[in-house]
Amino acid sequence: MNTLPDIHDGLMEGARQCPSPNHDARPADCAPSLLVIHGISLPPGQFGGPWVDALFRNQLPSGEHPFFRQIAGLRVSSHLLIRRDGELVQYVPFQRRAWHAGVSHHQGRRACNDIAIGIELEGTDELPYTDAQYRRLGPVAAAISRHYPDISAERVVGHCHIAPGRKSDPGPHFQWFRLRQAMRNWSASGSGAGA
């Protein structure tokens, strides 16, 4: 990828669109100004199946796995997912409020979903994320920052930072320096910067 992906009508160029019904309007004074990085796998520790798409579309079959029964009825979503192979999936347009942060706070503000864009990385707290995920995440985060200038590299946080004690993702293996350096490189050059 040599150029940043464009964003039109809240949709990211190059993303597979998989619309979720789990979103609503942001409050009137709440433009996106925070990027939240998450980690997810379904069932926990397993990668590559159709279950994250199913969860975010309220189509998770509770009989397929014991863990699915524990989360039956959950209504959640994220704006984006980056799978282990780097595939980018979008569930909710950025101008809409996705339901990913839950009970949360950041710099005195509560209900971070109001101001946040959420990116899920397919993974767990126990494993490093893949190079393909970092190669995708850098330009995606930079494109979001370019489109929503209030989201600087310093306003990119983990779920663990906005819900401490309740959430631990994206986990200790996530390389924050790698993401922030990629965002700065892309911002400085606009092309060709790697993660």
TrEMBL record:
<keyword id="KW-0961">Cell wall biogenesis/degradation</keyword>
<feature type="domain" description="N-acetylmuramoyl-L-alanine amidase">
    <location>
        <begin position="20"/>
        <end position="171"/>
    </location>
</feature>
<keyword id="KW-0479">Metal-binding</keyword>
<protein>
    <recommendedName>
        <fullName>1,6-anhydro-N-acetylmuramyl-L-alanine amidase AmpD</fullName>
        <ecNumber>3.5.1.28</ecNumber>
    </recommendedName>
</protein>
<dbReference type="InterPro" id="IPR051206">
    <property type="entry name" value="NAMLAA_amidase_2"/>
</dbReference>
<dbReference type="InterPro" id="IPR002502">
    <property type="entry name" value="Amidase_domain"/>
</dbReference>
<dbReference type="InterPro" id="IPR036505">
    <property type="entry name" value="Amidase/PGRP_sf"/>
</dbReference>
<keyword id="KW-0963">Cytoplasm</keyword>
<keyword id="KW-0862">Zinc</keyword>
<dbReference type="Pfam" id="PF01510">
    <property type="entry name" value="Amidase_2"/>
</dbReference>
<keyword id="KW-0378">Hydrolase</keyword>
<comment type="similarity">
    <text>Belongs to the N-acetylmuramoyl-L-alanine amidase 2 family.</text>
</comment>
<dbReference type="GO" id="GO:0008745">
    <property type="term" value="F:N-acetylmuramoyl-L-alanine amidase activity"/>
</dbReference>
